[in-house]
Design a protein that fits this description.
- 43% of the residues lie in helices and 16% in strands.
- A two-stranded antiparallel ribbon has the order 1-2. A two-stranded antiparallel ribbon has the order 3-4.
- It is α+β, with helices and mostly antiparallel strands.
- It is built from four helices and four strands.
- It is globular and about 35 Å long.
């Protein structure tokens, strides 16, 4: 995916969800928006802290359910080695193979198309 604004990315996600006939709820959309503002991977609990700024009543299951949905739709990836999540920058491509590069020093995660 070329550089896009957060609004363009969210609009693309909404379009994909409509085509797939799945529901992108306001909470799921907000979690995706928060992830799009991150420079790299983020833990579920760090996402929860950010979500609570707008929704103080948010609980861990709220974030985990949203992340599960976003994972199923291919909008995010789970970085198992750091137990964190990162936005998929190729989610507009129906199928793709990518590799995640994780910096040993700072923990930054970069996705590269492997094809």
């Amino acid at each position: 995916m070329e550089k896009t604004t957060t609004q363009e990315l969210l609009a693309q996600a909404e379009k994909i969800c409509a085509q797939r006939n799945v529901r992108l709820t306001p909470q799921r959309l907000e979690v995706l928006r928060l992830m799009s503002l991150q420079d790299g991977a983020i833990s579920a609990y760090d996402l929860l802290d950010l979500l609570r700024e707008a929704e103080p009543q948010a609980k861990p299951p709220t974030v985990y359910r949203a992340l599960d949905f976003l994972l199923e739709q291919g909008f995010v990836h789970k970085v198992e080695s750091t137990n964190s999540y990162v936005l998929c920058h190729l989610f507009d491509q129906p199928t793709h193979t990518s590799a995640m590069f994780i910096c040993d020093r700072c923990g930054a995660v970069k996705e590269e198309c492997a094809e």
